[in-house]
Amino acid sequence: MNTDKFKAAYNESRNGANGFYNHALNKLFMYSDGVQECAEAGCYWFLDILATELPAAFKEHQGEYLCVVTLHVKDGKAVIRGMFSDDDQAPYKRIVDYTDMPDGDWNFYVQHEPGNGLVMILPTEY
């Protein structure tokens, strides 16, 4: 993991997204150029997890169109949590036993676009 590259891409001031990429494992999961820059720093595994597991979580939360995904990293371990609303009683959750991502809370937005699948962006691209 290139920590400096990840932090620079994550924190870069953006004015929306300039383009989108389809995930190789799930063509109905797209992500922005800002998310792509973060992944290039060494966290494609994070996109793989979300592309394969988050669609089922959206099915469980029918009617919800936005999921705030938080990647909480501390001491080489991570918890991925997806909240669909402020009072979400059954949020998406995944524990990762090892990661070389920098410690911190990293937030991402995933939006369900009916007919087009899921789209992931950085908060700075919103």
Structural shape: globular
SS strand fraction? 25-35%
Q: Mean of the pLDDT scores?
A: 94
Low-confidence stretches: none
Estimate the helix proportion, in percent: 25-40%
Name the helix and strand elements from N-terminus to C-terminus, one letter apiece: HEEHHEEEEE
Number of helices: 3
Cα radius of gyration in angstroms: 14 Å
Q: Specify the oligomeric state.
A: single chain
Biggest sheet details? 7 strands, mixed
Spatial separation of the terminal alpha carbons: 25 Å
Q: Which structural class do the helices and strands define?
A: alpha+beta
- Order of strands across the main sheet: 1-2-7-6-3-4-5
What does this structure look like?
By secondary structure, this protein is an alpha+beta fold. Helix content is 27%, strand content 34%. The chain has 3 helices and 7 strands; from the N terminus they run αββααβββββ. Strand 3 and strand 4 (77-83) form a beta hairpin. The longest helix has 17 residues, at 44-60. It is globular and about 40 Å long. The two termini are 25 Å apart.
Write a compact overview of the structure shown.
The chain is of the alpha+beta class. It has helices at 3-11, 33-40, 44-60, and strands at 20-22, 29-32, 66-74, 77-83, 92-96, 104-113, 117-121.
Keywords summarizing the entry:
single chain; 126 residues; alpha+beta; 7-stranded mixed sheet; 27% helix; globular
Task: Note the topology.
Layout lengths: L2 H9 L8 E3 L6 E4 H8 L3 H17 L5 E9 L2 E7 L8 E5 L7 E10 L3 E5 L5
Parallel strand pairs: 2-7
Antiparallel strand pairs: 1-2, 3-4, 3-6, 4-5, 6-7
